[in-house]
Design a protein that fits this description.
Layout lengths: L2 H13 L4 H16 L4 H37 L1 H9 L15 H8 L1
Helix pairs in contact: 3-4
């Protein structure tokens, strides 16, 4: 073998790295994953924000349903609603509010 052939054989293993298609592919992947407007990080942030907004939507839907129920109760019987929620009473009666002791409840459960 001549000296040129030995030099060419040594250069062949490193030559695949300088392939123009491979370099373009690597550049494209780096660009799309990091620098592009629709990068992986951006998509992850958008997915997280969608998840948070969905949770908030469900919470507000529940609050809306509760408000509608309270509105129906108020229109149906305002006196009962005032007695139950605001502890109002007539002049000639007494109302006793009994509050449960949380410590006793926890002890009885054990």
């Amino acid at each position: 073998m001549s000296k040129k052939t030995k030099k060419q054989n040594k250069a062949l293993p490193n030559r695949w790295f300088f392939n123009k298609y491979l370099l373009c592919l690597i550049f494209f992947l780096v660009w799309m994953l990091i620098f592009d407007r629709h990068s992986w990080r951006t998509q992850r942030q958008l997915t997280n924000s969608i998840r948070v907004l969905t949770i908030e939507k469900n919470e507000f839907t529940d609050k809306y349903k509760n408000a509608l129920q309270q509105q129906k109760d108020l229109k149906k019987d305002p006196e009962k609603y005032a007695r139950d929620n605001y502890f109002m009473h007539a002049e000639n009666e007494q109302v006793f509010y009994i509050e449960k002791n949380k410590e006793l409840d926890e002890r009885s459960r054990k």
